[in-house]
Amino acid sequence: THFGYQDVPLSSKVDLVRGVFSSVASSYDVMNDAMSVGVHRLWKDHFVAELNPRGGIKCLDVAGGTGDIGLRLLDHAREKHSDRQTQVTLLDINPSMLRAGQRRLAKTMYWNTDQLRFALGNAEDLRLHLDSPPPKSPLSAFAASPNKPKLPPLEHLEIEDESVDLYTIAFGIRNCTHIDKVLKEAHRVLKPGGVFACLEFGKVNVPGLSDLYRAYSHAVLPSLGAVLASDRASYQYLVESIERFPTQPDFARMVAQAGFHLPGSPQAERWGLPAYPEQRSWDGDESVNGAWEDLSFGIATIWKGMKL
Ligand code: SAM
After folding, report:
1. Backbone CA torsion sign across 145, 156, 24, 110
2. Which residue ranges make up each domain of the chain?
3. Can you name the residues that pair with 61 across neighbouring β-strands?
4. Residue 305: enclosing H or E segment and its boundaries?
5. For a designed S-S bond to 62, which of 14, 148, 169, 210 qualifies (C-beta 3.0 to 4.6 A apart)?
6. Does ligand 1 have an atom closer than 6 angstroms to the CB of 176?
7. What is the spatial distance between Cα 227 and Cα 91, in angstroms, rounded to a whole number?
8. Residue 260: helix, strand or coil by DSSP?
9. How many Cβ atoms from other residues are within 10 Å of residue 254's Cβ?
10. Is 245's C-beta closer than 6 angstroms to any atom of ligand 1?
11. What is the spatial distance between Cα 22 and Cα 19, in angstroms, rounded to a whole number?
């Protein structure tokens, strides 16, 4: 089984001890805020504002987790463009994360509308049907409070070829084993003209600051994990997964290799995906100049690609 979010499989014992899935998911949200001092919200706001979803498009938010990106996409379309046609499918491999997302989105106006769907699925194969989580014991009905919304069963959607206008993946691709497969699937499901957009931890490439960031991640993050989530090992692993992830130019090349046109390439520019002129590649490969956008000195980075 792949548990994704925490990067390392939770042992079944930990699962049992924690019992209620929602408490796990809510500690993630708390941890996100604590680790980034809330800045992850600004990164996500910026990511979505720049994508500017509108015009009744079909969005697929892969590794959507508790819905941070999906909700922002729908809110942006509605608030900035009075668009109530744009649709979001929130896809995640982890049923408990998806459940937490459902519980959260059940409180919004998008609940029970065509605008919102949830799907269990694997970013590496968006046609795959995963095993459903076991049904809850009938006794758990007694624990459910009457004002809790009834959640629909988690669906398995086969995401079809060329069916998506906007593919987003935020802080999710790092957890996947085969990044090339994820990119290939993104390319398959996007319509021509569709955009792939990835928000992920990057590398800080500012002299002096990189060392400071390294020290912070190694000294502070695992301890925060220990104190706030009673889980030092997972947060230790998080730091390692961030360091293992490709550099900005390396990942940009992977996006291009999957068949996408990078921001700044003549074709992408022509169809509305301009370069980020301030970003020069530091490894001398000019073909990826302007292909990504660093946020907070590269602690997070946005990469995009267009399928044409
Ligand atoms: N996108 C959300 C956000 O930005 O808040 C959630 C990010 S969370 C750090 C990573 C998510 O990736 C988890 O919900 C995890 O279950 C999911 N995930 C990990 N591997 C996956 C895979 N192969 N396919 C789909 N989702 C995956």
Report:
1. negative
2. 12-204+229-306
3. 90, 168
4. strand 300-306
5. 169
6. yes
7. 30
8. coil
9. 18
10. no
11. 9
Return the number of other C-beta atoms located less than 10 Å from residue 129's C-beta: 13
Annotated binding site for S-adenosyl-L-methionine, which residues? 66, 92, 122-123
Task: Assign 148 to helix, strand or coil.
Answer: coil
Answer for the pair 187, 196: CB distance below 8 angstroms, yes or no. Answer: yes
Query: Whose Cα sits closest to atom 17 in ligand 1?
Result: 63
**DSSP at 298:** G
ipTM of the complex: 0.99
What is the distance in A from the centroid of ligand 1 to the CA of 207? 31
Task: State the distance from the centre of ligand 1 to the C-alpha of 121, rounded, in angstroms.
Answer: 10
Q: State the Cα–Cα distance between residues 28 and 34, nearest whole angstrom.
A: 10
CB 275 within 8 A of CB 165: no
Amino acid at 96: S
- At residue 45, φ and ψ (nearest 5 deg) are -60, -45
Tell me whether strands 300-306 and 292-295 are parallel, antiparallel or unpaired.
antiparallel
Given the CA of residue 169, which atom of ligand 1 is nearest to it?
1
Q: What is the pLDDT of residue 146?
A: 53
pLDDT at 46: 98
Tokens standing for residue 247: 């550099």
Summarised one tens digit per residue, pLDDT across range 17-45 is 333 334 456 677 777 877 777 899 999 99
Burial of 3 (0-12, 13-18, 19+ CB in 10 A): middle
Contact between 131 and 122 (Cβ < 8 Å): no
DSSP string, 160-227: PTT-EEEEEEES-GGG-S-HHHHHHHHHHHEEEEEEEEEEEE----STTHHHHHHHHHHHTHHHHHHH
Say which CATH architecture domain 12-204+229-306 belongs to.
3-Layer(aba) Sandwich (3.40)
Q: What is the pTM of this model?
A: 0.88
Of residues 87, 91, 80, 271, the one with CA closest to residue 166: 87
